[in-house]
Amino acid sequence: MEVLDGDVVRTNLSKGLGFSKEDRDTNIRRIGFVSKLLTRHGATAIVAAISPYREVRDEVRRDIGDFVEVFVHCPLDELVKRDVKGLYAKAIAGEIKNFTGVSDPYEEPLNPEVTVHTHQETVSESVSKIMARLREMGYLSDGSAAGLIAPHGGSLVNAYAPAGEWRGLQAEAARLPVVTLNARQLSDAHMIAQGVFSPLRGFLTGQDYQQVVEHMHLANGLPWSIPITLAVSAEAAARIKEGQKVALAGPDGKVAGTMLVQEKHSRDMKAEARHVYRTEDAAHPGVANLYQEGDVVLGGPVTMFQSPQPEADIQPFYRTPAQVRQEFARLGWKTVVGFQTRNPVHRAHEYIQKSAMEIVDGLLLHPLVGETKSDDIPALVRMRCYQALLDNYYPKDRVLLSVFPAFMRYAGPREAIFHALCRKNYGCTHFIVGRDHAGVGNYYGTYDAQHIFREFDAKALGITPLFFENSFFCKKCGAVATGKTCPHEAAQHVTLSGTAARAMLQKGELLPPEISRPEVAKILAGK
Amino acid sequence: MQSNNIPAERGVTIWLTGLSGAGKSTITDELVRQLTPRAARWRCWMAMWSAPT
Asked: Which residue ranges make up each domain of chain B?
């Protein structure tokens, strides 16, 4: 990539040229010539030059071919008012001759590929328009050039403000009413911003909310199964008007972003519980959380300007969807199976993962590291277990271990759909759904999380679910198997309930080798 | 911060035209940032996290 800035070019490549039409045209032809060489060699040339004459711009366009004209538009009176460099005042006073827009013509492009209006748009909005057009024209991709699956809805959302604007936005946010997010809401905001929840650009507004809760689709028809909401207290809501911006602070009080509150609406919590969690029982952790958050929710797009702050031990495994996609592209993987887990990987899971790995290029081992139930094994211990397992039992170039920074909702079947769509955004083509995915207690049938996929148009989902039955070690087979592959009676199967396993671990005992690899068992037993 | 875009292999000239002060350079800076390969930016990120705040 190379930048050719008009002001800089005039100090070397076009040194000595003046501002007559002839000299200006010569300047543009020289910039055009260098751009053509760069473009021809597969590079990206970015030219920033007034280039006032249409004819020579069009000549350069024809010459280069791969040419994207961006008309950076701002009304003259606004420029005169701004006059950052004080040049317009001088030009109007006649102190500078041949000043484009004042004493020299500017011929606007008739059919530019992109027009940005810098007096109405933020820098990031303008740049997003350019990036979208580049993508449309095939000059960049979300890895689709590398053969990766397209994100849900077509493109990855990036709702982080450009780093250069962070300080300014912080200052602006200091004057806005503050909405304090709990840890899950902050995690959601960052995941929206990173594109994990593409195509969502913010917390759901009423129409999307209703469609998602009742029909598991967004208003635009795309599948989406979990309402991503920002509930606020009644007091906080009373201070906020629709159409205004609010600052989003994390639980620590630090402002991490802003949100344009498009809608403030109330939700029927019992209906949401019934639809999403299939129960109104407040003993269900997801439902309990819903009731606790309350019925007033804000909807609208977010802009984040603080990085997520993962724990130190998680950092090396923290990758955004774009970064995971880049890794896939680098590894040359086209088909990737995603595995969601909030447990250590035992032999039963290893069997399922490896069965799936036989038909794809790679495995994304994607443990959830947001909040889980208090009796789940802590994320840091799990990461050590995964590492030990991968080091000893998996081919290095066929697995990527990265973390999924979401909180568990325990929405079972609906969460299986949600987990699959998020993994599609990370670049996975396949997703493993085992028994009681994202379940808790006895709220869902053992294979409900598999059955729910039938309710969707497979093409609209885009990611292929791989269903696996409960797996176990069979003494007679001498291997891990499932009911589909093992003919022996239950007495031959080595099973260990979660409760029994926890009891063993609390006593510092090693899990049996049929259940867990010794390297993993040792870490879990604290040895 | 990260961008979500991997430049494709095809070269291209992105030509920003407009009056002085309209924002060509500012937009160029941000475009460059978003088009810079992320591996490099990732290292910056990690450094940012490791730095005391």
From this structure: 1-53
